[in-house]
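Shift notes (night). Ran Transcriptional regulator while the centrifuge was going.
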Amino acid sequence: MTKTQEPAVLPDQPTRLETDGPNAVGRMLGLLGDEWTLLIVQQSLRGIRRYGQLMDALPISNSTLTSRLAMLTREGMLERHVYQDKPVRAEYRPTPRTRSLWPVLLAIWEWERHWVPDHAERLPSMHHDTCDADFAPVLGCRSCGRPVAAREIEAEWGPSGSWPRSVPEAATRRRSDAEAVGGQSGLFPDTMTIFGNRWSSALLGAAFRGLSRFHEFESALGAPPTLVAERLKAFVAIGVLEPVESLGRADWVQYRLTEKGRAFFPVVATSLHWAEQWFHAPEGPALLQTHRTCGQDYVPFFACDRCGEPLAAADISIVPAGTAATTPDEESR
Ligand SMILES: [Zn+2]
Ligand SMILES: [Zn+2]
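Came back to this:
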């Protein structure tokens, strides 16, 4: 006998958000701004279904894994499926909203591989089966098909957009902001400095939107000055922002995105797209993005840098260092 536990939300349909509540961006950051959640999602997309397998695959404690699986089930990201009654054994299957996260994980993988040198050797290669080559993903615009850079995308708030509504509510009440800095497992170190803190991701979003001065960050985010100072310092430390003194005004330091900072844009673009796909505010989208070059709505996609074809989850294999290609999860095809 098998049975499936009903999650609180329908996993294959967008969540309807409350009027004036957290918007799609806030909900996405609350969910994905957690290293363990990202790691469990990553394992799930590779076909890992069972508790014991997850314990083997990740440097995670029992209590943390139990709480994350409960949260992911409640949020409609995993479906708990009992496959044996005595004793009870369950597996956790990725739902469509989890399956559609693969571009975000691909973007994180590419960025960490390129910009976090100590980390690069621990990451597997990715193989594009269509052209039979190891590849890097290239971010493009689905409307015109061309590659895009961060500066070509114009973003403005949509009907449900504002800074206060975009700051995440934690999906799990688990730790202070200070503990989250730099990640816990060390598997996505720099990504977690940006993503794993409720103010960091908002601050990076502000930098992408052209804000550069301390007081601009402070007033846009409505964050306490000490927090803004601490987050700016952390971003400068990992080389995502650089301080630039304005001519003759030592007190007017500007913080500009570095090349490494701008290269994080594919993670931002794909995670924002996922957010708007799965979380619908009654007022409308949180963010409206336009590709300046073609003038159309910006929808991200990834192409293969070797053959130029659009990438699909089904055509990507993970190649662990020193071994032959293995095919990821059949079901995520
Ligand atoms: Zn375009
Ligand atoms: Zn290719």
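The domain at 3-262 is CATH 1.10.10.10 (Arc Repressor Mutant, subunit A). The longest strand covers residues 249-257.
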